[in-house]
Amino acid sequence: MSELERDFDRLVDAEQRVEPRDWMPDGYRKTLIRQIAQHAHSEIIGMQPEANWISRAPSLRRKAILLAKVQDEAGHGLYLYAAAETLGADRADLTQKLVEGRQKYSSIFNYPTLNFADVGVIGWLVDGAAICNQVPLCRTSYGPYARAMIRVCKEESFHQRQGYELLMTMMRGTDAQRRMVQDAVNRWWWPSLMMFGPSDEASSNTAQSMAWRIKRHTNDELRQKFVDMSVPQAEALGVTLPDPLLKWNADRGHHDFGEIDWDEFWRVVGGNGPCSKQRVAHRRAAHENGEWVREAAAAYAARTVSEEVVA
Ligand code: BYC
């Protein structure tokens, strides 16, 4: 092991942050670019299922909230792409990989949003799962990623609360509204559990990412935390979680729950989810239609720089 590697390990073990100019192993840089890029792509693709409801939100208040939330997600994507750039990645290249299906994004965004209760359930469960996963990332070993996560988590917690409040309102409404909420919970519960990734035995990256303190908990630890957190919230809301095996285990001090359909998980991760083709095609079209904006912005920036040089 070289002196550089020893210094790097000492820094990480002492819970200090690795910064862009520090030496780092190639594998550490590669893993971070992979995770941060997937995370950024998830934020950007994640705008689509909810944006589907902006024009059909049932009131001006709900529309304003949803607009703000979707806009926050664009912001999260931008901080994350900027964090990936500090590692030497090129944002245009990352986007190209996304639209060509060569880089992943979260499985959760490949499911359709069929009724307005889905907006509430995405806030409650999907943003709830995202918070569970991302709060520990505020202590991830790479400085720019950890700092980006602080703001992202603050905004995610607003997103989670708006979702829960929306569902509370619907649950106090008519029978039809209560049925819409239950239907949305039935469809989103299992995909939300899948957000945490494969089981620890099947996770190819966890051991190394834990050793580098990129990940602070394993996939199964975070999934368990999310289940334990969600059960009392479901009770308070008055909905049933669609898992007959879900029950409190006093010996473990946790809830037991049923087995995830891993075939479905890998199918969706492999680009064959219910909306996978549509999501990527939409992103690709937005990217192509925005080409003239990027060209105009680059030409303007080049002219501004040359005018500054002349002045
Ligand atoms: N979907 O070895 P593993 C959000 C891939 S929230 C798709 O355990 P790792 C938002 C994994 O990439 C969602 N792919 O991987 C919320 C790996 O493939 P490669 C985004 C998945 O990285 C609300 C392979 O499976 N959050 O954005 O150690 C509104 C083996 O997995 C998934 C983040 O990205 C999945 N669910 O652990 C709007 C958080 N799970 O790359 C937006 C940061 C696994 O080896 N990321 N794979 O080919 C992480 O914490 C970790 O990357 C994960 C996976 C826990 C997700």
Describe this protein with a few key phrases.
binds benzoyl coenzyme A, 311 residues, mainly alpha, single chain, two-stranded antiparallel sheet, 2% strand
Walkthrough of the structure:
There is one protein chain. The protein has helices at residues 3-13, 26-45, 47-51, 60-85, 91-99, 117-134, 143-171, 175-194, 206-211, 219-237, 262-272, 276-289, 291-310; strands at residues 247-249, 254-256. It is mainly α. Strands 1-2 form a two-stranded antiparallel sheet. A hairpin with a 4-residue loop joins β1 and β2 (254-256). α2 (26-45) packs antiparallel against α4 (60-85) and α6 runs parallel beside α8 (175-194). The relative contact order is 0.11. The model has no long low-confidence stretch (mean pLDDT 97). Benzoyl coenzyme A is lined by residues 34-35, 38-39, 42-43, 46, 73, 104, 106-107, 126-127, 130, 133, 194-198, 203-206, 209, 215, 219, 269.
Which molecules are bound besides the chains? benzoyl coenzyme A
From the N-terminal CA to the C-terminal CA, the straight-line distance is 52 Å
H/E order of the elements? HHHHHHHHHHEEHHH
The largest sheet is:
2 strands, antiparallel
Number of strands: 2
Strand residue content: under 5%
Identify low-pLDDT runs.
none
Number of helical elements: 13
Helix/strand-derived class? mainly alpha
Query: Which strands sit side by side, in order, in the main sheet?
Result: 1-2
> Portion of residues in helices?
55-70%
Using only C-alpha atoms, the radius of gyration works out to 21 Å
